[in-house]
Predict the 3D structure of the following.
Amino acid sequence: MLSIVDEWHEFIKWALATHAGLWLGSFFVLVLLSGMLRERRNPSASAAWLVFMLAVPYIGVPLYLALGTRKLEALARQKQHLFAGRTPLTPGDSPLRKLLVQLGVPDPNTVSSFDLHANAQAAHTRLLTLIDGAKQSIDIEIFILSSDTTGRALIDLLARCAQRGVRVRLLLDGVGSFLLSRKQLKPLVKAGGVMAWFIPVLHIPLRGRTNLRNHRKLVIIDQEKVWSGGRNLANEYLQDENQTRWYDLSFDLEGPAALDFQTVFEADWAFATKRQPVIAGKIAPQPFNNLQPREVQILPGGPDMEEDILEQTLAALIREARQRILIVTPYFVPTETLQTLLCLNARSGIQVDLLLPEKSNHRIADFVRNPFLRELHKAGVNIHTLPNDMLHAKAWVIDDRHAVIGSANTDLRSLQLNFELMTLLYAQTDVVAVRKWADAHLSRAQPWQVLPRSRLRETMEGLLMLLSFQL
């Protein structure tokens, strides 16, 4: 039996070890917090991580190590190298052009054709036609490839293309396409196609990347033709809208601008496969039949870009607006900057129209959006909702002068966390086509009904807002 002196010695050693552990743990938490606060985050996200790591450090710290990274600096430097060679600024350049150059965005590039898909059937038909007509290469980068009839038919078509000698590369997000079994991809791999997972679910967790999702939707054929937008490859996105009640927006283009999309794919493919990216070649100038060539500009956003390109570009477009701002998005949880600018423009007499689904497929996002909608409604923004339909499209139209369409929702996850890809349209023909598409849906919409306020509702909205960055 230990003597009283020995027991005291053991107790003192235990107390000192516990004290040292607490100090070391507290110091480690402070180091993580200092790094987190140096990153530009939404205040609600910073507050949530701060409270979580201090209140329950044994859970909060490992989760932050697994989920907390927002920018991948090495990948951002690599992208800057791939996008080198931008045209120097001149004194006569517009503020928008100056901003995009400073953000490191590739210059606008020409297209010989640009077609907006009127509906899901048109998008599906065009996708299959492009893939079936491929001669050299098919590169697909997608968030969701479903195991439904649409997904299975697409895998079979890709396998047939690979069998006839076309190089097929398929890049799938680890979470978005998680339910797609490896067995269903075997026909493609057996035929010679190559596939990779972008940050798979089963990987080294404490590198901060687990919550970084590749939300881009991109199909490139022969490095000359592009199919992109907001649609995933699944029944609800590509089947008869009268049956699915699911509405989205996509487009295809052809011309030199395709190489900018190819550059994005090559960098993402290199990241997923741990290889050096290949710089895309050049497309020879194409005749435009004496018509003014159209221009588009890619806007890649996410952890692979040093700046928050999408948020800053949208903010610049809001500031440029003189008559009307039209926004279509399935989820609306904006940054503080965008929310403030939209309110200011509405109060200044500029028409601001926001089109949302009345009920989206993410009910938490519907709940969290209410404080922002109340503030916008008070400022004079026209808020419209589509009853009984899921509107998954993402589009901004400014004064019939600029339109932005693609994969990014107007929410914190898309604007500050996901790998996203939007396309900025310059040709008035294309901008007006997007506006007419949106106005057609506006004609079916109803005014948003302001929900009665209560202390319980506002408390729940605030609590859920702390999680919105990770939703």
User: Anything to note?
Assistant: The longest strand covers residues 294-301.
